[in-house]
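chain below, 261 aa
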Amino acid sequence: MRVTKFSQIVLGSILCCVVISVQAQSVAKVNGVVIPQSRLDLMVKAAVAQGQTDGPEMRKALRENLIAEEIIAQEALKKKLDKDPEVVAQMEIARQAVLVRAFQADYIKHNNVSDETLRKEYDMLKVQMGDKEYRARHILVENENTAKEVIASLKKGGNFAKIAEEKSLDEGSKGNGGELNWSPPAAYVRPFSEALVRLSKGGLTDQPVQTSFGWHVIQLMDTRPMTVPPFEEVKQNIQQRVLQREFGTVVQDLRSKAKVE
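prediction:
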């Protein structure tokens, strides 16, 4: 009897430890459903990546969000919304998106780019950017005739900034009189950059410039020598650029081998 009783005590202690361990790894239990700690950890990681500071207040708020979401999800299941064809499709899309991101992250994790390759990319980018930066402004319109009317108006003394504010389709620059940031020609699509570098300071395009965005009227305001950041400063960005390009090649290769009917 003593042995049996001792065995029961030991077994009870083990079970108690298991329960405590499981509880320690959970955030909360909602109507009997456990919210795992790993889910909160993932949300904390995402929040920190977006610039938030990890701390008790943030974790408390995220915990409350998880609880609220679990309650709502349970109600949705009661209504059998998980059987709705549209919901099923959305869940499949979400699952696929997670897998795609995981595959991409795994590729980046296991594929390093040598410093030699990065420096070659850096040198190539320096050549592409050139030795000058251009400060320009433009007016983007829908068709060639409107662009010609804008050019005619400007040549008669029209106010560039006012016309840009009234007519430009570029929401990013129209409020600033059509002004663009200092940039190398390579920052723009080719027809725009080719027209820009042909202009002298203060010059205006005689003919509208067509790109995939529409029709542009461009004026060059000023130029200055191009200052290229040192390699170490942009190394990480270049690495991401190279990896994205290589990953695109991997995807194309997989696409070529896939049986698509």
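Residues 1-23 have pLDDT under 50 and may be disordered. Residues 25 and 38 are 8 Å apart (CA to CA).
thats it, cya
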